[in-house]
Amino acid sequence: MISIKVNVLIDFTEHPYYGEREDKIIKGTNRQKGTTKMRHYLGFSILSRGIHLYAGLEQVAKGTSKIPIIIKFLDYLLNLGFELNYV
Question: d(Cα 53, Cα 12) in Å, to the nearest integer?
Answer without folding.
Answer: 17
